[in-house]
Predict the structure.
Amino acid sequence: DHVPPKLLFSRPYPDNLLTVPACTDCNSSFQKDDEYLRTLISLDFRVAENCDVQANFSAVFRSLQRADAKAFAQNLFRSMSDSTILNSDGEPMGRTFAIDRLRVNAIGSRMIRAFYFIETKNALSPDVRINVQAKVGIGPHDPDAIELAKIFLPAHNKKSRSIGKSFSYVTVIEKEFSMWALMLYGLCI
């Protein structure tokens, strides 16, 4: 299984894509979740300038037009509401989608388990509790980013990795816990 999912990147794919062992049935069971993640993130205007998002835009719209995706596309568009971000005239700046938090948490948990395996060469027990928090549009001056930095900077067992131009993570791995900060679709330069 590619982690993060290969479909989040454009071709030619980065030469440092990561993989973890997965049976064929498990690997294929992740495809719809991976497409869900790519669709939600790619439709967010805050990542519109990213080169991988731009290159994959037509694939996102083709996938929404497939016959087997009709129900998903209808549910996605039914869940739309006006953005709470307003322009200078006080009008909503676009539309937002309701996010299936359980699905996003499952995707995040799968990715964390895979990265943990990559970094430690050990599988996490299924009993290990993973808490996923997603925040779109976080930047270096965001209060949450500053709080994370306070934990990560003094830690001794931290690691970081970038995959292509669009994905990176930092982690602290201790005996009793690990913390991960994943960034997807920063700007490509």
